[in-house]
Amino acid sequence: MGTTKFLFFLLAFILLMVLGKIVYEGIGIISLEFIFDEPRNNMTEGGIWPAIFGTLAVTTIMVLLSVPVGVSAAIYLSQYAKDTFLTRIIRTAVNNLAGVPSIVFGLFGLGFFILFIGRNIDEVLGTGLLWGQPCLLWAAATLSVLVLPIVIVSTLEALISVPKSHIDASFGLGATKWQTIKKVVFPQAKPGILTGTILAISRGVGETAPILFLGAAFFLPNLPVVDLCIGDYCIPMINPAEQFMYLAYHIFILATQSSNPTLTMPIQYGSTLVLIAITFLLNITAIVLRYKYRKQLGKI
Amino acid sequence: MKLNKKLTLVISAILVGLVFLTGCKKKEEVEKTIVSVKGSDTMVNLSQKWAETYMKKNPNASIQVTGGGSGTGVAALLNGTMDIANSSRELKEKEYEIAKSKSITPKEFKVALDGIAVIVNTTNPINELTIAQVRDIFIGKYLNWKELSGSDSPIVLYGRENSSGTYEFFKEHVLGKDERGETRDFANNTQVLQGTAALGEAVAHDLKGIGYGGVGYFAARTDVKILKIKADEQALAIAPAQDGKVNYEAIWNGTYSISRYLYCYTNGTPDKKVQDFMDFILSKEGQDLVKQMEYIPLPQ
Amino acid sequence: MTEIQTSDEKVEVEDSVQERAESSLYGKKISLKVRVKEKIIEYFFALNGAVALIFIILIFIFLFKEGINALNNIGLLDFIYYDQVQLNQTVERLFEWYPTSSEERYSLLPLIVGTLLTAIPATLISTFFGVAAGVYLSEIVNPKLREFLKPMIELFASIPTVVLGFLILVVGATIFNDLFHPSNRLNAFIASLGLSFVIIPIIASMTEDALRSIPTDLRMASYGLGATKWQTISRVIIPAGFSGVSASIILGFGRAVGETMIVLMAAGNAANITTDLLLSVRTMTATIAAEMGEVSQGSDHYYALFFIGIILFTITFFLNLIAEIIINKMRKKNVF
After folding, report:
1. Which residues of chain C make contact with A99, given a CB cutoff of 8 A?
2. Which of A141-145, B95-99, C19-23 has the lowest mean pLDDT?
3. Nearest CA-CA partner of B223 in B293, B124, B114
4. How far apart are CA A122 and CA A110, in angstroms?
5. Does C186 touch chain B (CB under 8 A)?
6. Which chain B positions have a beta carbon within 8 Å of C297's beta carbon?
7. How many whole angstroms separate alpha carbon A252 and alpha carbon C286?
8. What angle do CA C108, C113, C119 make, to 5 degrees?
9. Which residues of A touch C289 (CB under 8 A)?
10. Cβ count within 10 A of residue C23
C-alpha cells in the first residue's frame, strides 16, 4: 500500500532529478544562436544547427518511408485480414520487430540497404560508389523499419475503434470496400495515424546505436543539402546521398571524444536539453491527441 | 475534427517546408569542390581546424571531416569513399595488400607529430616510470601500485577501442613482442573508452587509474598527471609536456620515445582540390595551426 | 519494398452512394472494372500488411548472409576458447575476445557474461520498482490521478538512451564512485542502473494493463470474505495477473540484453569474465557498436560481429516470442 506509493514517488523524484539536472545545466546556453549556429573551434564554441538539421532531415525521410507503409499495413490488418494463421503470424511479426535490438537494425541496415541495395543501385546506374556507402537515405530507411511497429500499432488501435455500425452502414448504401475505407474508416482514424507518426518521430530522434555506422558524422561544416536548379533559380533540398550530423550522436561524441570537456560541457548539456525537449514535446502532443480522440469515441 | 484537420495541415506544411527548404535563391556561379576527410579521432580536431581555416581562405572549397578511428579512415580510403584518410599510424602490410587488390595506391603524407603521454591521477605519488614498467603495467604483469613503490592499491587500466590509432601505436611501440614473437596484448581487464576525452575524465576521477593518449590533449589539463618516461633505469626521465607546454625538442630529437608521425593518405597522386588542401597543411600556416592545437609540428 | 504509393485515384464510377445502393438493389452487377480495381487495392494493402513479416525475414536472411561466413572462417569452437601454445610447448586455454591481436581470439564468453551481468541486475531492479509502480497505478491511486500519472510513464520511457548513458557516465559514475568506491568506476552495476531507466516503464505499464484487466468481481469477492486491500493485492490480484507481469519481465529482460548506448558509455567495456558487479564488463551490443565502424568489410572480425548480431537477434526473438505466447494464453483464458 504505502510501500508502492513510496516507490512510485521515489521513481518520480529520481526522474525529476534527472530532468532537473539537464535543465539546470543546459538552460544557460540555449539561445537562438545556439540553435542556428554551426559548431566552431572544435565544437568548443558555436551551436548545433547542423546536428538539428540532420536530425530533421533523417526523420523527415523516415516518416515519408514508414508512415504510408505502416498505415497501409494497419488498414490491411483491421479491414481485410480474416483471422487466419497468416494474420496471426503477421501480428506476431509486428510485435517481434518492435523487440529487435536497435544495434541489430544497424547491422541490418549495413548488410541490406548499403551493401545489398545500395551497391546494386551503383552497379545498375554506374554511379561508382555513391549509394553503396553510409548516407542519410539508408540511415532514414533503417530507422523507418525500426519505427514501423510503432506506426502500425498506433494506427491499428485507431482503426479498430471505428464503430462497426458506421462500416455496415456504408456497405448497406452499396459502397465498395475501398470506398468504405477511404470515406468512413480513414477519416475516423486520422488522429491515431497522427499519434503514431509523432511517436515514431520521437523514437527516431532518440536512436543512436543504428546510425553509428550508417552515416552519422563527427563534424560536417555543410548541411546535407543539394541545389535543385531550374534555370537560374535553385531550391535547396535534402541530399539523401550525404553523410549527416545527428543530435543524439552529437551528444555521444561530445561525451566521449570532446576536445576539451570543460569548454564543451555546457554545449553538451544544451544539446541534451534540446533533444529531451524535442522528444517530450512530441510525446506530450501524442498523449494529448490520444486523450482527445478516445474521449470523442466515448472510451473514457 | 476541425482541430485535427488543422494539425494535419500544419504538420504537412512543416514537412514540405523542410524538403523544400528556404525557397529560392540565386544559382551559385561556382560549383563547390568537396574534399572528404575521414579517420583518426586523434587528428579530428586538428583536421577540423585545418578545414575551418582553409575554407575561410577558399570559400569555394568544402572540406568534410569525420572521425571514427584510423582504421575507419583507411577502410574508407580502400573502399574508395574518401579523398583523404587521416591515420595516426602507418598503413599495415595487410592494408597495402587489400589496396593492391582494389587497384588503389595509397600515397603517404606526414603532416604532424604526436607524443603519447602516459597519465595517472594527480593524487598518485608516482612521477616517473621506465618504458618496461609501463609495458608490464598494461599487459597486466603488475597488479598493484605498491610493486612500483606507489600506494597499496590495485592498478586500474584505461585504454582505447581497437579502432583507434593510438591503441595500435601503443600496442606496437610500448607493448612490443613477447618471447614467442607474437605482439603482446593489453590485459583483459583494460577498460575501453570511446575517446581521449572519456579516458581523461576517467583517469581524473579514478585514484587507481592509468591511461594513455595524445600529449596535446593533456598538456594544458591540470586534473591528470603526465608521467615522465625513461628508456631504462639509468636514463634521464623526460616528460612530453611540462607546466602546460608541450616539450617539442624532446619529441623532435627522440629523447621522449613514445611519439609518432600523423599521416594523411590519399589515393595515388591527388587531384588539384586535394593537393591544394595538402599543400596548405604542409605550409607554414598549416603547421602553425598544428602548434596552436597542441600537437607537434614537423621538424623544420 | 518500401515503395511509397498513394493509390488515391478517383473511383471511376463516381455515382452517389444513393444511386449505387439502388443499382445494386435492382440486381445490376458491379462492373468488372470496379471489381478488378478492388482486388488490386486489396493486394496492395496485403503486401503492406505483410511488411513487418517481410522485414523480420529480411533481417534474418541478411544477418545470416554475412554472419554465416564467421562459422566457415572462424569455427564454432573458436567462438568459445583459443588454445595458445606457450614457449615450453604447453597449451594454455584462453577465453578471450581479442579480434585485433596477432593471434586473433574470438571467445564470446566474456561478452555473454558481460551482457548477463548488466541485464540480470537491471531486470531485478526494474521488476521491483516496475511491479510496485504498476500495482500502485492499477489498484491504489484514484482514477483521476491515474489519468495524469500514466502518461508520465510514457514520458519516462521516451527519454533517449544516449542521454541516460551520458548522465550515468558524467554524473552517476562520479556520485557512485564517491559513495561506494567500487573497484572500477565504470562497472556492470552502474550500467544496470542506467538500463533500469529503460525497463522500469515497460514493466510498470504492462503490469498495470495486466492488473486492470482482472475483473472487479474478484476484488469484490475478496473484500467480501473480509480481506484487507493489501491481502487482496498480494493474494488475489498479483496471482491472477501473474502471467501478464511475467511477460512484461521477460520483455524487459529482452530490452536490457539489446540496449546499446547505455552499456557502451557506462559499463567500461573491459572484456572481463567475472561475477563481480563492481568490475567493468563488455556486452555484445557495445562490442558491435564500438568495433563495427572500423573493421574492413569481409574480414573475419567483420563476420564475427555479424555473428554476435545473429546471437542477439535470436535471443531477443525467442524472448519476445515467449512473452507473446504468454499474453495470448492469458487472452484466451478470457482474462482480457
Report:
1. 251, 254-255, 258, 316-317, 319-320
2. C19-23
3. B124
4. 15
5. yes
6. 75, 79
7. 13
8. 125
9. 103, 106, 209, 212
10. 16
B39: left (phi over 0), alpha (psi -120 to 50) or beta: left
Helix and strand counts by DSSP (H, E) for chain B: 11, 14
Q: Is B78 exposed, middle or buried (0-12, 13-18, 19+ CB in 10 A)?
A: buried
Residues of chain C contacting residue B201, judged by C-beta atoms under 8 Å apart? 169-170
- Dihedral angle of Cα C211, C213, C216, C218, to the nearest 10 degrees: -60
Q: What is the pLDDT of residues A34-88, one digit of tens each?
A: 888 888 777 778 888 989 999 999 999 999 999 999 999 998 888 887 777 888 8
| C98: nearest Cα among B185, B199, B10, A104 | B185
Scan for cell 597519465, then name that residue: B119
B111-138: burial string, b at 16+ Cβ within 10 Å, e else:
bbbbbbbbbbbeebebeebbbebbbbbb
Cβ–Cβ gap A173/C229 under 8 Å: no
d(CA C323, CA C327): 6
The rounded distance, in Å, linking the Cα atoms of B168 and A52 is 34
- Return the C-alpha cell found at B24: 529560392
Residue A299 has what pLDDT?
Answer: 57
Q: What is the pLDDT of residues B225-260, one digit of tens each?
A: 999 998 888 888 888 888 878 888 888 888 888 888
Neighbours of C257 (CB within 10 A): 24
pLDDT digits (tens, 9 = 90+) for C149-201: 888 888 888 899 999 999 998 888 889 988 988 888 889 999 999 999 999 99
**Which residue carries 522528444 as its cell?**
A279
Kindly determine whether residue C155 and residue A284, on different chains, have CB atoms separated by under 8 Å. Answer: yes
A257 touching chain B per CB within 8 A:
yes
- Which cell numbers hold the place of C75? 569455427
Residue numbers in A near B4 (CB within 8 A): 190-191, 194, 289, 293
Interface test with B, best of A259, A290, A296 (most B CBs within 10 A): A259
> Given A129, A222, A237, which is nearest B64 (Cβ)?
A222
Where chain A has pLDDT below 50, the residues are 300
On whether the CB atoms of residues B116 and B166 are closer than 8 A, the answer is: yes
- Which has the closest alpha carbon to B80: A132, C290, A125, A244? A132
Establish if A127 touches chain B: CB-CB under 8 angstroms: no
Quote the minimal CA–CA distance from B156 to chain A in Å. 19
SS3 content of chain B, % helix, strand, coil (to 5): 40, 25, 35
In the stretch 228-267 of chain C, residues with CB closer than 8 A to chain B read 264-265
Tell me which residue has cell 512473452: C323
Q: The C-alpha cell of A85 is what?
A: 494463421
The rounded Cα C274 to chain-centroid distance in angstroms is 25
CA distance C83 to chain A (A): 30
Q: Which DSSP state fits B199? A: H
Looking at CA atoms only, how far is residue A55 from chain C in angstroms?
14
What is the model's pLDDT at position B13?
Answer: 64
Q: Which residue on chain B is closest to A63 by alpha carbon?
A: B15
Q: What are the backbone angles phi and psi of residue C264, rounded to the nearest 5°?
A: -60, -40
Q: Which of C59, C162, C200 sits opposite A252 (nearest CB)?
A: C162
**What are the E-state strand segments in chain B?**
25-26, 33-39, 61-66, 84-87, 106-121, 128-130, 156-160, 191-193, 209-214, 224-226, 228-230, 241-242, 245-246, 259-267
Is C285 in contact with C260 (CB distance < 8 Å)? yes
Q: Note whether B38 and B266 are within 8 A (CB).
A: no
Cell 595516426 maps to which residue?
B88
What is this structure's pTM? Answer: 0.87
Residue of B nearest to C175 (CA): B205
